[in-house]
Amino acid sequence: MNFKIRHLSVDDSKLLRELNYCFGQEFDDAETYLSKPPSDEYLADILTNASFIALAALSDDRVIGGLVAYELKKFEQARSEIYIYDLAVSEAYRRQGIATALIEYLKPVAAKKNAWVIYVQADHGDEPAIALYRKLGVQENVLHFDIAP
Q1: Where are the alpha helices (DSSP H) in 27-143?
Q2: How many CB atoms lie under 10 A from the CB of residue 49?
Q3: For residues 64 and 68, what is the distance between their CA atoms, to the nearest angstrom?
C-alpha cells in the first residue's frame, strides 16, 4: 500500500473537510461530523491554531484516514500533553499500518512541542483500537466523565 502522511496547514481546508467526512463514515456518526459543516473561515482559523494538529493519510491525493490531536499546555511544568481526539482509517485500507504510521508521525510533532506524553482513549469493545494502542503504549484504566457546560 502506497500512502503518505500530510500535516495539514492553513491551506488544507479541503483536506480537513475530507478527513471530517472520513471520520463521519468510519465512526458511523454523520450527525456529529457531517450535519453542520463549519465555514472555510472557521477551518482556516483552526488550522492556524498551534494547539490543533491534523494529520491526513493520503493515497493518490485522496484522504484514506487521519488523526486530529490537541496540545494541552500544562501549568505544573513547562511541558505539554498531546491528546489524540480522533483517529480513523477507511475500512478498505485498514490493517496496512496506516494508523501506526499516523501515530509514529505524531511523535516528533509532539516532541517539538515539548510534550511529555501522547494519550488516547478507546471504547470498551473496540478491540482493533485497543490492540493498536496496547502495541504502542501503556494502558491505564481510568473512568471518563462527560460534564455538560
Answers
A1: 30-34, 40-48, 98-112, 127-136
A2: 11
A3: 14
Q: Distance (Å, rounded) from C-alpha 139 to C-alpha 85?
A: 17
Using DSSP's 3-state secondary structure scheme, residue 102 falls into helix
Res. 41: pLDDT tops 70: yes
CB 67 within 8 A of CB 19: no
The beta strands (E) that lie in 60-148 are given as 62-73, 80-89, 115-120
What's the pLDDT score for residue 105? 97
Identify the pLDDT of residue 128: 73
Kindly tell me the burial class for residue 106, based on how many C-beta atoms sit within 10 Å of its own C-beta (0-12, 13-18, 19 or more): buried
d(CA 106, CA 114): 13
Ordered by where they begin, the domains of the chain are 4-136 (3.40.630.30)
Q: Which amino acid is at 58?
A: L
Kindly state the average pLDDT of the residues 11-28: 95
User: What is the structure's pLDDT at 85?
Assistant: 95
| pTM (2 d.p.) | 0.89
* Cell numbers describing residue 146: 462527560
